[in-house]
Automatic annotation (TrEMBL), chains A, B:
Signal peptide: none annotated. Residues 9-63 form the HTH lacI-type domain. GO terms for molecular function: DNA-binding transcription factor activity; transcription cis-regulatory region binding. The keyword Repressor applies. InterPro entries: Cro/C1-type_HTH, HTH_LacI, Lambda_DNA-bd_dom_sf, Peripla_BP/Lac1_sug-bd_dom, Peripla_BP_I. This is LacI family transcriptional regulator. Keywords: DNA-binding, Repressor, Transcription, Transcription regulation. The keyword Transcription regulation applies. Residues 10-57 form the HTH cro/C1-type domain.
DNA sequence: TTGAAAGCGCTACCAA
DNA sequence: TTGGTAGCGCTTTCAA
């Protein structure tokens, strides 16, 4: 009776008040079998009177599935990941799935702990957004729950993963800079323990080499994907007194920081120095000048994750192709 | 047996393999009662062997609480709300709560639907981040689940709410502009159906009046809190050929858009036009120039929500005071 | 200290 | 078309 007090009704209460068996109410609710018209009507009425809502917990326990997809992100505040999150949600919402989101903060142990929590809550599948867990860890988890990972290369019976071509994106960015006449191109790299960062750096190096431009180690300085690291990196570049006409930043945030460092010293973008980012965050269209950057189709990454997950969970799904990276040319690069 | 196949172990399996009763295993797990040392050791061993993890679903069904807090946000992509989200998570994590996040997109019907879903999943409490539901709707929900709302003024037996002083924040911003010698101040307002937006507008109007500055309706143009609306708003202001030396934007995003409009026309900030925002988003420190804006202590709002929620759920909690708004002066305003 | 068993709210099987 | 009932995995009386 505590349930009556707390205003929560059970299926049994509906049944008894409607003078039918719980089974019948259940059948009515789920359309599992024909229910005679008169009973159907009384049940409907009683449900309404009592404002009855099924207890999804009990349903889940019974059915063995929670209609919930766990998402391991790295930060709740990342505009980057959250764009993908929206994609995931849009993709799975119609099938009745909700998202249970946890963040691992790029720390393998924490990530594993979160996935463990997710599994403990019996999510039907886990979506992993990059991170630092080992492939082995992921494969281990996948014995307990189907996994779709983005920014990883694991594959397994119940594990799907896909990446974007960071290397190619970086090449495209640098190619563009070169096509605009730049030869002295600095790079603010991302953290070396970060796969995407390494690939972007490789793309930078290889493209320079391809064009016979000698690489100058003083031109690449390491950041950590944050605005402040971009600011710092550029300051150190400026102090070191190396000459360069363009900067390729490992991501947009870093580019923002670099932009500010330039602003502080009255160096104009793009008149004095050209700047290219990576990611194409929402706000990169509104920086001054609007940032030329490599667009990551994050929303589509999200829907791709969602669709793959639905497919693994046995839902009919159209193929989920994710478009590639593409350079979006705005106004932060000048032709020299 | 399907559980064995799928690699998921139940408490009964642990019990039988350890040669004890399920009750004993449960007691061991929860420390509910003394368990003899030898049994404890075998149980521990078996749990390890079987890699047993309790089914939280079953626990929740039995205990009547899911250790989950539902959060109704408006957009998964909003840096504004997500900062608060992190605060909520930090506040409740230690007590073992997870967050179930859904977004209502500023649409009362959708919001209600989401809260309904949250309740259906038997969250222990619901945190509401502003939105457009009526107070009555919220109060109705609160008969089924405790609610903490931010940016609302409802109060009820199981409903707590708190706001930030948007009016005061706007006054402070405009006061500052006036103190720097500005008298012709434009305002890009937020959507009129948005309480915060109305308050900020009122603060703008009243502060002007207080200083005997005649209000000029041509100086206020309405946006919708987005960058693009800021851009549009400023363009229309510029086209209308009204004179002004400063802009007070209803939020930072709008300010970004306005900033770009200015940039497009080679109008310098702050040399030619001063600009003040509202919110103090993460990135406002890195715009060029860094944006002077009214800081909203969103993280603290989040922890405030979390702490209030924990208190309602019966956890001992220190008082949860949320600091007020404060102007952060950076470089987008000039003394005229 | 331990076990047997009831029951959380639901679904689905088996009979009728 | 309907009802009775077992059982999902767990916790917690009640007895022993």
């Amino acid at each position: 009776m505590k349930n009556i007090e707390s205003g929560i009704t059970t299926l049994y209460q509906v049944a008894s008040r409607a003078g039918v068996s719980p089974a019948t109410v259940s059948r009515f609710l789920n359309g599992t079998a024909k229910v005679s018209d008169d009973k159907r009507r009384t049940i409907e009425r009683v449900i309404d009177e009592l404002n009855y809502k099924p207890n999804r917990l009990a349903q889940s326990l019974k059915m063995g599935s929670t209609n919930t997809i766990g998402v391991l992100t790295q930060s709740l505040e990342s505009g980057y990941f959250n764009r993908a999150m929206v994609g995931i949600e849009d993709a799975v919402k119609a099938s009745g799935y909700a998202l249970l989101i946890m963040s691992g903060h790029w720390h393998a142990d924490e990530e594993a702990e979160r996935v463990e929590l997710l599994i403990g809550r019996r999510v039907d599948g886990v979506a992993i957004l990059t991170g630092n867990m080992s492939d082995k860890q992921i494969l281990d988890f996948s014995r307990r729950v189907p996994i779709v990972a983005f920014g990883r290369e694991v594959q397994g019976e119940r594990t799907q993963a896909f990446c974007l071509d960071n290397y190619g994106g970086a090449c495209e960015a640098v190619e563009y800079l070169i096509s605009q006449g730049h030869r002295r191109i600095a790079h603010i790299a991302g953290p070396p323990d970060h796969r995407d960062a390494r690939e972007r750096l490789a793309g930078y190096n290889d493209t320079l080499a391809k064009h016979g431009i000698p690489s100058d180690p003083r031109l690449v300085v390491t950041g950590d994907f944050s605005e402040s690291s971009g600011l710092l990196a550029l300051n150190s570049l400026l102090v070191a007194n190396v000459r360069f006409s363009a900067i390729f930043a490992a991501n947009d945030l870093t580019a923002y920081g670099a932009r500010l460092a330039l602003y502080r010293r009255n160096i104009r973008v793009p008149e004095d120095i050209s700047l290219v980012g990576f990611d194409d965050l929402e706000s990169s269209m509104y920086t001054t000048p609007p940032l030329t950057t490599v667009r990551q189709p994050l929303y589509e990454v999200g829907t791709g994750i969602g669709r793959r997950m639905l497919a693994m969970l046995g839902h009919q799904q159209p193929a989920a192709d994710v478009p590639g990276l593409s350079l979006v040319v705005r106004e932060s690069v000048r032709l020299v």
